[in-house]
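I am still getting used to backbone structure tokens and would like to learn alongside you. Label the sequence line and the structure token line clearly, so we can match residues to local backbone shapes. Go ahead whenever you are ready, and we will take it from there:
>
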Amino acid sequence: MSDIQRCDAIVIGAGFAGMYALRRFRDDLGMRVRVFERGTDVGGTWYWNRYPGARCDVESMFYSYSFSEDLEKEWEWSELFPAQPEILAYANHVADRFDLRKDISFETSVESADFDDDTTEWTVTTDRGERVTAPYLITAVGCLSASRVPPFPGLDTFAGQTYHTGQWPHDGVDFTDKRVAVIGTGSSGIQAIPMIAQQAAQLTVFQRTPSFSLPARNRPLAAEEIAEFKANFRERRAAARVAPSGVPGIPAVGSVFSVDDQRRADVMTERWNRGGTSFLSAFNDTLRNSEANEFSADYVRERIREIVADPDTAEKLVPRDYPIGAKRICLDTDYFATYNRDNVDLVSVRETPIEEITPRGLRVGDTEYEVDIIVFATGYDAMTGPLNAIDIRGGGGRLLRDKWAAGPRTYLGIATAGFPNLFMLTAPGSPSVLVNMIISIEQHVDWVTDLLVHLREQGYSRVEAVPEDEDKWVEHVNQVASYTLYPEANSWYLGANIPGKPRVFMPYVGGAGPYRKICDDVAADSYRGFVLTEPATASDAVDASVSR
């Protein structure tokens, strides 16, 4: 056992969730914490996704930590929607300011994590051969970190360069005078395509399913609005914590059927011109009623037809077979207008899929498209993928991926029965990807921190979700989703982009604010749904589980 290092908590991942967990556990609870991160530095999603045009769809003033008013005051965002370099710079600033890197092992992947029922400890093994034990294991692996390239025949024969948007080279890619193919028109593709088109000699976009996209209307932030936000820091942050989306928004005008045709059109036009995602929340039944949804969907379809000059191309770009908002809504800057460029072509692979990657390009039907570079904007094995990539074994040696073979099962999206002392930040069964992720991250880390304090004060060493309460939560998550139109789309929310993955709606659609209240109520009721256990043999449970 001499080769095993010991600490009080192990955190996997050094994105925004892992950094905040380290800050709270180490600085507020006095715990010895080890963080493992496969990248060379902090940043998580924003470390890996460096593709041209990468940008957050949450306003910058709210896509930032709220735990430190001093941090809030000293950092100044430059744009309404922050770009990847600025977000990564912010993450690095936080790591520097709170001296986080000294407890993070970079370029280190966790291969396995095993729980020992006798010692009530987790043992983590890394790809460097290091073994570390701790009573508590916290996964902060991110929801969109397991990038995926479909297994196209002939992929390894391509003579040119290939890139995935989620594994972008740190020194960038030069598209000058290149013939470029982009496969995929989800969020990453929609952001990257206009930027690549400005540089490439020829860009061919291969689209299976068209996406609804709204104009971002991004702009520089004025000094006055930054000062106003900072002057009302606490009020703005308090409002964000209880808002359904994790960002205070413009209230809905009511049902789409409660206004006449002119008023309905005026509301949608105002929201469209305003930019951002507020268009989706203009009416309170857009995501709950198919007929109501069609009004918003038709409005966006008409805008696409107005923007795209070629009628055939426009019709290819018009989404028809799923409700607007049921897949992740995209925000763009000149995405649809990009198809008016002479150097941009759109190929629909819905009816005629990509048959193979050839040494010179891609073959679709009888046509070979010769290119120099292929960009895969093909998404991720979302939410469960990063967790299932690690051999996580709970009580009795059961693998997490085996338990989740028919779909993820959690209690509150934080814990899963049979895996004691394991806390999964923003996991399936929590709002996570449907809301402001920073709000979700802070809420989860704060909740787990309070639970660790409770365990310490009461002398408990083990906490585990109750299977029956987990079943009730899974049922509740599915029931709430069934009240909406989300399940009607073949989206990555359901795992539909991964062949063979169980079709289970993974995030909780009840909203960040209501979810927070549920978690707070569980804590107030002596952590209802969890079994808390004292150590079998120990006189000092406090020091055994958490050292100051």
About this structure: Confidence is low (pLDDT under 50) at residues 537-548. The longest helix spans residues 437-458. The two ends are 23 Å apart (CA to CA). The CA atoms of residues 466 and 529 lie 5 Å apart.
